[in-house]
User: Which sequence fits this backbone?
């Protein structure tokens, strides 16, 4: 009886790993679930279809934002990410390094590449380790295929534009702004509203109400009676793709959706599209970007 008990004890000890000094850790998903403060992260991982990936062979290092880190994001960001799977996957994979990085490396190295493709920066400030701008608040949580470091904020790669995720489409952005009532009315009269609400992306050089008011008397009523010409003029203000201010200043011209190019010039600190001055740049919309201009530009022949 005593011999049988000793044999059973040896089997149990061997099964738990105590005999060899090997400790069995849970995978990162189960580890995060057990911790209890990563529920938003786990929900996002599941929504992005990454659960099996992170349960895989690895090794992985996960810089894991806590629930408090997600709660600190601006209102609507989590919902916007959950509605855009590509952006969500990019954000989550930016938190994962495809090798094991212990805390000692975080405080001595300059950074590491992520599964998303961009590189995280490692720094030490006032005695704390930082990953980009997120502070490591609990390092070296061991898992079966790597390690987790809890961090106090959500990291966002440069490839993901949070402002764009939160923005309205071009038409609603113009409506909300309040300075483009004539432009919006013209777009609707020309039957272009659905186009500018579409996926795009588009760059719109948007004349203000004051710009339309500066046209010769009778111009707007005349255009509203000539929809083909109105459409041509409006499309002459639209460029395919997203051309931000940093790109605009490097160009000498840009081809419009109407088919003809607009000239882009600079004079001192001012940028001009044909004869119209750009007064505000990079108003972000979900399907493009708006640059505000102070005059209506007309295609050649109009």
Assistant:
């Amino acid at each position: 009886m005593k011999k049988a008990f000793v044999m059973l004890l040896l089997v149990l000890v061997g099964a738990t790993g105590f005999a060899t000094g090997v400790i069995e850790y849970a995978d990162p998903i189960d580890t995060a679930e057990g911790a209890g403060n990563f529920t938003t992260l786990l929900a996002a991982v599941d929504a992005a279809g990454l659960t099996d990936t992170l349960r895989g062979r690895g090794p992985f290092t996960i810089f894991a934002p806590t629930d408090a880190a997600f709660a600190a994001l601006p209102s609507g960001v989590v919902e916007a990410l959950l509605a855009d799977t590509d952006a969500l996957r990019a954000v989550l994979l930016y938190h994962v390094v495809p090798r094991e990085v212990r805390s000692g490396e975080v405080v001595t190295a300059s950074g590491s590449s992520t599964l998303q493709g961009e590189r995280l920066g490692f720094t030490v400030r006032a005695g704390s380790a930082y990953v980009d701008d997120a502070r490591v608040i609990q390092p070296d949580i061991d898992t079966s295929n790597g390690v987790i470091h809890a961090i106090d904020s959500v990291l966002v790669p440069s490839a993901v534009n949070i402002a764009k995720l939160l923005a309205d489409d071009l038409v609603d952005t113009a409506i909300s702004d309040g300075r483009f009532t004539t432009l919006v009315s013209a777009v609707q009269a020309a039957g272009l509203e659905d186009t500018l609400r579409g996926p795009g992306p588009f760059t719109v050089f948007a004349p203000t109400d004051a710009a339309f008011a500066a046209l010769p008397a009778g111009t707007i009523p005349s255009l509203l009676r000539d929809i083909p010409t109105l459409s041509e003029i409006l499309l002459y203000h639209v460029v395919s793709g997203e051309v931000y201010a940093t790109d605009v200043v490097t160009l000498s011209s840009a081809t419009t959706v109407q088919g003809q190019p607009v000239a882009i010039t600079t004079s001192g600190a001012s940028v001009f599209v044909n004869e119209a001055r750009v007064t505000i740049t990079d108003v972000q919309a979900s399907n493009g970007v708006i640059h505000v201009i102070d005059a209506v530009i007309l295609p050649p022949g109009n």
Summary: Residues 167-293 form a domain with the FAS1 domain fold (CATH 2.30.180.10). Residues 1-21 have pLDDT under 50 and may be disordered. The first strand starts at residue 60 and ends at 65.
